[in-house]
Amino acid sequence: MGNRFQAEHREATLELNRMTLDFEDGVALLRFNHPEVMNAIGADMLEGWAQAVTEIQRPTNGARCLVLTGVGRGFCAGANLADGKPTENRPRAAGSGLRNTYHPLLLTLRDLEMPIVTAVNGAAAGVGMSFAIMGDIVCASREAFFLQAFARIGLVPDGGASFLLPRLVGWGRAMELSLLAERLPAEKAFEWGLVNRVFEDNDALMDGAMEIAHQLAKGPRSLVLMRRAYWATWSNSYEQQLDLEAQLQAAAGATKDFAEGVSAFFEKRDANFRGE
Fold first, then answer.
1. Beta carbons of 106 and 160 less than 8 angstroms apart
2. In this structure, are 143 and 253 located in the same domain?
3. Whether residue 174 sits in one domain with residue 71
4. Half-sphere exposure of residue 1: CA atoms within 13 angstroms, side-chain side
5. What's the pTM?
6. Alpha-carbon gap, residue 48 to 83, rounded angstroms
7. What is the CATH number of the domain that holds 97?
8. Close Cβ partners of 60 (under 8 Å, ≥ 6 residues apart)
9. Residue 195 neighbours by CB under 8 Å, 6+ apart
10. pLDDT tens for each residue of 169-202
11. What is the torsional sign of CA 203, 118, 162, 109?
């Protein structure tokens, strides 16, 4: 059974340098689209990422939730090692490449004014795993697995993995994943708290992920403020977080969605939030 979203909206797809982007009822569906290399990321795909983020943030497109997934058998197999392959006269400048390309993208995703759902349909390896676990809601099919592949090629975790992993699964498990570079199946990732929902296959995964995304896209403006609050917890003291909560609650209380939510409560009906 083909995914309903793909079948109904193929004509509206934007092709963006190894990425594809669709919009439907407040949901932006962004796919890694280089299945020949399991969606490994090269320079062209990074350009597509930048173009996609611009489109997703454009108010006229009406996106209120982002779904990220991959085309084919892989979610994202990490960096494409054949892209810009180093030579004896031109060694790979891995650190500067991260600072100049990946870091701006990762920071933009962190600050995105909408929830992110990741739908992990296959291998999520290296920096691909970093993108997968950045989802506010991480969904995976039973066919998916996660892999901190860096030790296999003599590199260290990047894409924010060394920040997120110990906070999501604990120090010991983060070290185990990174040092041993062993596959983590979707079901065990769910047990460890790395994944929120596991689905039987990739069709069920996309249907489930899109259902969650549509629910989030119909949510109040406060969902954006919640993202801001939770990201701040990594660096704030308790006192700072209390103060931030007060600031964000004031902002939420001034929204049209709060007024609508209160009215809906007293009128015993479902709220019609507009993200305002």
1. yes
2. no
3. yes
4. 11
5. 0.91
6. 15
7. 3.90.226.10
8. none
9. 120, 138, 139, 140, 186, 189
10. 999 999 999 999 999 999 999 999 999 999 999 9
11. positive
